[in-house]
Amino acid sequence: MKKTEIIYQNGDHKWIAIVRDPAKPDFLIDTNEYLVTHGGQGMLLDPGGLEIFPAVFSALATEFDPSAITGIFASHQDPDVISSLALWLEFNPEMRCHLSWMWSSFIPHFGGTAATFSPIPDEGMTILLAGLPLQAVPAHYLHSSGNFNLYDRSAKILFSGDVGAALLPAEQQGLFVEDFSTHIRHAEGFHRRWMGSNEAKRQWCERVSQLNIDMLCPQHGAIYRGEDVQRFINWFGSLQVGLLRT
Amino acid sequence: MTDQLPVTLRSEPKGAALDLLHIVRINEEIKAIVAVAFKINIMALNAIFLAKRAGTAARGFGVLSNELRSFSSQLRETMLALNGLIHGSVGEVSVLLQDSRYNGVLKSAVSIVPLNSRLSAVMARRDQRTVEYRGRLSKVRRALRSSVDDACRLVELGGVLAKSAKIEAAYGAGFSASLAQVSGEFDGVVEEIRVSLDTLRRSNFFKG
Predict the structure, then answer these.
(1) Would you tell me which CATH number, out of the four given (2.60.40, 1.10.3470, 1.20.1270, 1.10.8), belongs to the domain B12-207?
(2) Fewest CB atoms within 10 Å of the CB: A21, A162, A168, B121?
(3) Quick check: A142 and A195 in contact, CB under 8 A?
């Protein structure tokens, strides 16, 4: 079973990280799921693949009623992000899935009906969770061509999807980045290979530099907080991406 | 970390997955029968020409060749109808396969949090749906079996026609040898179809 950790709380407004499953088979990439709660409703960010549903569900259920999840945010279309969709819908068939317009006719192959999907336009949009505004921030081509991050202005948290992801070794499984220079070595190869466009990366760095961010939460690896957020943006800004080293 | 397989990859094909494998085999057998039915059609056409050349002595053989030609087109139609049922079965089995995959994942969640009431409610609803899906598949299974039985009866008739053609060939005067060869081929081909249909009848899909 995964563990949950509340990384932000202000009344019933919470960010809960669902992370690190010791029973996960090695051949499945490790993923972080995040649950944002507010006003008795929940939004699950990148709910994960079908195979890890039991681990995510059981961890989440210890903190929150799964039938009160009213929304799912999918940063992009990958199976490790959203292939569990059909099972989450079992708990609330009215649940909306927010994702790039580009994938709104692809993801239904994982489940849902026409009413399930709320396509996000390229420029992004505000998604409300029981009145709490969450901003879908464009991150196209990082790595998916239709890709969004989710910014919570009130909590000052940016869910960054694959941006900031790191493939951590078994002995380095902390939830937060503790030593940036050590950590970033595990992120470098991933970003060079998965991120396809230097121009898209530059635009993203400019865009998120204007946001007030206390925590940058990726879908894989550890969370950047405090000064490590800007350190990451600077590091990413100077990294040459879209390279295949043979 | 463990090297344990994920919940959906642990077992050999069984249940709906095994049904799907059986359907694939049935479909291959049907394709083979359709190909043979086409062969009979061509053979019957040639036999009609041969009977015409043989004249009055082969009039009976000509009538039987016409009947065999009509038999081949009926067989093709029956096989096409079977194909439609096969497609229906694939649809129903696929629904059950996905259902069983999702149920497996949910059961795995139940084993971790057995007392979660939301999960129990979802499982109960899904169990009910599974019963409905199984009922639908049973219906298609019965329809398919009934169609295979119809095809078998049709092929029995084909067998009788082929054997009668063999007898008629004996009255073909100077064309007897050629007519006997053609009627022998008819008999062989109809026997080939009969064997294929017997294989279909014994398919484990119908035992499910």
Answers:
(1) 1.20.1270
(2) B121
(3) yes
- Say if strands A33-38 and A41-45 run parallel, antiparallel, or are unpaired: antiparallel
Buried b (16+ CB within 10 A) or exposed e, A36-58: bbbeebbbbbbbbbbbbbbbbbb
Least Cα distance to A80 among A118, A110, A37 occurs for A110
Helices then strands, each counted (H, E), chain A: 7, 13
Task: Report H helices in B113-175.
Answer: 117-169
Rounded Cα distance, A32 and A184, in Å: 17
Domains of chain A, each with CATH number or no CATH: 3-238 (3.60.15.10)
Q: What is the ipTM of this complex?
A: 0.85
Whether A29 and chain B come into contact, CB under 8 Å, resolves to: no
A 10 A CB-CB count for A233 gives 21
B136 and chain A in contact, CB less than 8 A: no
A51, A58, A61 member nearest B7 (Cβ) = A51
Question: Cβ–Cβ contacts within 10 Å for residue A122, how many?
Answer: 12
Q: How confident is the model at residue B207 (pLDDT cuts 50, 70, 90)?
A: confident
Nearest to A48 by CA among A3, A79, A7: A79
CB-count burial class (<10 Å; 0-12, 13-18, 19+) for A123: exposed
Shortest Cα–Cα distance, B127 to chain A (Å): 13
What integer pLDDT is reported at residue B66 of this predicted model? 93
Element (H, E) at A38: strand A33-38
Q: Which residue has the tokens 């030593």?
A: A179
CA distance B12 to chain A (A): 18
Tokens (6 digits) for A206: 């400019």
What are the structure tokens assigned to A53, written together? 């549903």
Lookup result for tokens 């007519």: B179
What is the distance between the alpha carbons of residues B120 and B126, in angstroms, rounded to a whole number? 10
Q: What are the boundaries of each domain within chain B?
A: 12-207
A-B interface: how many C-beta pairs under 8 angstroms?
A: 65
Residue B1 in contact with partner chain A when CB distance is under 8 A? yes
| Radius of gyration, CA atoms only, chain A | 17
Q: Is B105 on the interface with A (CB under 8 A)?
A: yes
Burial B161-189 (b: 16+ CB within 10 A, else e): bbebbbebbebbeebbebbbebbebbbeb
B32-72 tens-digit pLDDT: 888 888 888 899 899 999 999 988 889 999 999 999 999 98
The answer to whether residues B50 and B66 touch, using CB atoms and an 8 Å cutoff, is no
Tens digit of pLDDT for each residue in A140-150? 999 999 999 99
